[in-house]
Amino acid sequence: MADVLTMPVKIRQKFGEDVSNDLVDFLNVFIDQKQQEVKQEEYHEREKLELRLKKERNETESAITKKIDTNYSKLYTKIENVHSKLTLDIENVRSELKADINNVRSGLKEDINNVRSELKEDINNVRSELKADINNVLSELKVDIAKSKTEIIKWMFIFWTGTVITILGGLFGFLKLFLGK
Questions:
Q1: What is the per-residue pLDDT across 106-159, written as a single tens digit (0 to 9) for each?
Q2: Using CA atoms, how far apart are residues 121 and 104, in angstroms rounded to an integer?
Q3: Domain segments of the chain: what residues?
Q4: Which terminus of the chain is more exposed, N or C, with fewer CB under 10 A?
Q5: What's this model's pTM, rounded to 2 decimal places?
Q6: Which of 20, 38, 27, 22 minimizes the C-alpha distance to 4?
């Protein structure tokens, strides 16, 4: 190591150069030794600290790992509980929905059957009304046809009577003309 210490000039003059140099060398060696001891102590302390830190780190990691494992187990158990509860809830809701759907289905079937019977009843009523109207119209037509027939027969009688009278009149006139002379 380089000289750490130097002697003031007055001390050199008083003790002499050789003694001063020896004293400086001695003090430098002593300081170097003390520095080496301090470095070794620091090195040993550092090693002790590193070992302690390593031990504490391992203990901490182990404690954290144990805590994580414990919490994981608890969390897994809670998740399984929630999962089973949700599964039960889903099954309950599913069965309730099926029951509700069946109730609605049966209600709709009843409503459809009611509407169907009402429609049949309405159709039968309309059919009866139509038959009655058709019968009324037919009877009116029959009456009108009978009136028309009577009217036609009356006019035919008048026509044929007029025609027969005209022919007879013509025949009598012709006979009178040719025979009556």
A1: 999 999 999 999 999 999 999 999 999 999 999 999 999 999 999 999 899 899
A2: 25
A3: 9-179
A4: C
A5: 0.38
A6: 27
